[in-house]
Each structure stands twice: as structure tokens, then as C-alpha cells.
Design a protein that fits this description.
Elements (H helix, E strand, L loop, with lengths): L1 H7 L1 H15 L10 E13 L16 E18 L20 E4 L2 E3 L3 H11 L7 E8 L9 H17 L7 H15 L18 E6 L6 E5 L10 E6 L9 H8 L4 H7 L3 H12 L2 H20 L10 H17 L3 E4 L7 E4 L4 H12 L8 E5 L7 E2 L5 H7 L6 E5 H13 L1
Parallel strand pairs: 3-5
Antiparallel strand pairs: 1-2, 1-12, 2-5, 2-6, 3-4, 6-7, 8-10, 8-11, 9-10, 11-13
The chain binds ligand DP6.
Amino acid sequence: MSEMIFEQNPELRVLSEKLLQARIRGELLLQSGDVGWASAPSNIALLKYWGKKSGLKQIPVNSSLSLTLGAFRAFTQISVVGRFFPLNEGRVNVLLERPHFSLELNQNAAPMPAKMEIFLKSILHGFADDIALRVESVNNFPTACGVASSAAGYAAIVGAIADLLNLQRFFNACEMQTWLCEWSRLGSGSATRSAISQSDSKGSQFVAWELLDNGVSSSTQELPVHNNLSQLCHCVLVLDAGEKSVGSSEGHTLAQTSLFQELRLAQYPARFLRTREALLKGDFQSLQELTEIDAFEMHAVMATGSCPLNYMNRDTASAISKFVEIRNKVSAKMLWTLDAGANPHFVFMPEASVAMSQFFQLLNSDSRFSGAKVLSGETSSKGLHLGEKSGAKSVVASSKLPDVLKEMSLLQAAQFFLKGSKE
Ligand code: DP6
């Protein structure tokens, strides 16, 4: 597996080789008790990644583009289990009795998924095959609320390993970003859009994961955005807090079985370019149209594959249609989108807060939505943060979550957004 990854991603082989050389020089030394931390945001795709290139590891069939959800975060601590053994002619001895990898999620011991163990072993391959890692991770948002935990989770794991290895000593800024984005992508495709490091708050909220012209590789970068769109707000409507029956990874393999997938892909890369242009011009109207048509098309593909996936259920469709009704009545700048789940996301300009409040009032008057919740986060904390200052050290130790996320009933949400509009 690791060899296949290095064959398809030669830049990762070069970086791994650098780490082996550092170990040979005695500059990289790991042993039990060494720890690294990171926190990473989730993201919501406005142009969706749906389908992977066959025969290639985690290369999407189309470019995607997302809004970083800075307040929805995973906080992760990685610690070393075992120690480095003497090298054999400049190579790491692969031990018969390698220590065990282990996982703790939201303060509960959890079996480490085989996919995650293979992933961690691949990252260590070549320079640290003799140690294992312990992963402790806490999310500040509920599982199955419609916010991708794998995006935040894998980006935070990769970030915490970068901190553990103190990679800044060996890589320049560009190599560092490549290492973070590429390994995150290999963990979970959408995680690459959560792996952009931001040292200050000036960075853009938008990230693109682009399929390159050669069709066999991709790149991730922060996108420039017009000032008009630099302060977008976001919330998610939790209609169904149950685990979804078919996850994204399985869903990607079904995409090609829908006749609509080819039609959908024919819209790219023009749609991708138009969306980038809308961001540059600060054109919310186009961003809204492009986002919503993209979500509709992805769900059409999902619903028409050999095993139909109907994530958009009746309540989701009804909530979206009420949202569109209010939006059209007051011409507010707000848009909806939906990932592989039943819980719609809403993105809006700050001045659309009153319309959002009206929307939640309308939902609140319909008994069908009585159990619904709204999650809304501060937009201040954004990208991937490494090290103690990421907050992960204290969160993992005490499980005390930072107060950046609000969970509200519909009525509370209606009041919250009305109040926000007056501030
Ligand atoms: C619908 O990134 O979760 O959210 O690469 O198999 O881990 P894997 O899939 P994942 O797929 C995300 C699908 C999506 C759209 C998107 O986020 O672009």
C-alpha cells in the first residue's frame, strides 16, 4: 500500500526520504512520551467531490471547492508508542513485534479502523516503521449532525503528526503544505480542504481541491475572494441525528453507476472556473446558483446509481423549499447545500440574518420540525492549527470544549439571528 502511494505521489516519497536522512543524522528521534497536537476545521463543499478515479489513490473525478467551517473542529493528540531501534545499513528494521496502534474518540476507547491503521503506517513508512502511534481525538460537534467529521479528523491527525515530528525543522513552507494536504487527502478526500494552515485570521474561507489537467493528480489551495464574500455566515439544520446507512466512501464507488454522472462531469471544469470567478468578483448570486445546481446534480447521481442513495428525504426537501420561499420573497443573499446526509447547510451574508430568523420561525410553526436543532459557529477560528496553541492539548486532557459553537432549538435560532442582525 505505502509503495503504491509513493509511486503515485513521488513528492511524498522525496519528503519521506528527507525524514529518513534526518533520522540517520540523529536529528529526528522519537520515543514513548513524545507528543504532538493539532486542531482542524471541517468544511462544507459548495462544489462537491463525488466519485474517484479508478486505479488511483484518492484522486477525485472532478475538482471541488469548499467553505472552511472554522468553528466545527477536531482536536487531536498523537503520542508515540515504542522507540527507534538501531538502523540496518541506513534502513529501518521492520520489527516482528511492532507496538500496537490505538485510538480514543471523544474520550472513549474505540477500535482503530483498519483504514486508519494502514494510513498511519503509510505516513511512517520508510523512516519510522519501528514505532506505533496513539491517537486521541475530540470533536466539538456531534457525530452525524451533517458536518463531515472525517475531514476535520484526518486533517487534525496529519497536523498532530507534523507537530510531533516538528516538521518545520526539515521542510520549507511549501513542502510543509504539500505534506499536510497530500496526506490528509489520502486519509479522506475532503480532508485535504481542511489541511490549509493559517497562521493569522486574514486567510480566505474558501479552499479548492483541483483535479489537474493530467487527470492523475490534484492540488489543494486557498482561493482568493472579494471583500464582499469574506465574512460569510453558516449554520446547519439538524433534522436527522442518526448515523447514515451508506457513508461517502462507499457512495463514491457507486457514482459511476449512474447515467447522470457523465452529464454532471461534463459541467466541469467550466462550473469550477465560473465559481472561482464569482468568488473573485464577490458575486453572491452566481455563487448561489452554482452551489445549488451542483448539490441537486450530486443528489440526482446518488439517487440513480445501481444502489440508489436518497439522502434528501421529504423533511429535507420541505425545509429547503421553505428556505427558498423566504429567500425569494425578500431577495436575501443566502444559499443552501446538502452533503451525503439529510441535514442541509445554509450559507449567507451577514445582512441576511433577518431572513434566516424568519426562516427558522416558519419551520418552528410546523410540527414536523419540532425535534430539529440548529448548529451555528463563530467564523473567527479558521484553518488548521498545529502545536500546543491549537487548543488540542487542553481539550484532549480535560475534554473541555471551547465555546465557539452554539446548538439551538428553532425558536432560539430565530431569536439568535434576529438579535445578530441588530448588532
Ligand atoms: C458529499 O471525503 O468523505 O461530502 O475520500 O472516501 O473519505 P472519502 O470521502 P469523503 O467524501 C465527501 C463527499 C461529499 C462532498 C464533498 O465534501 O466534496
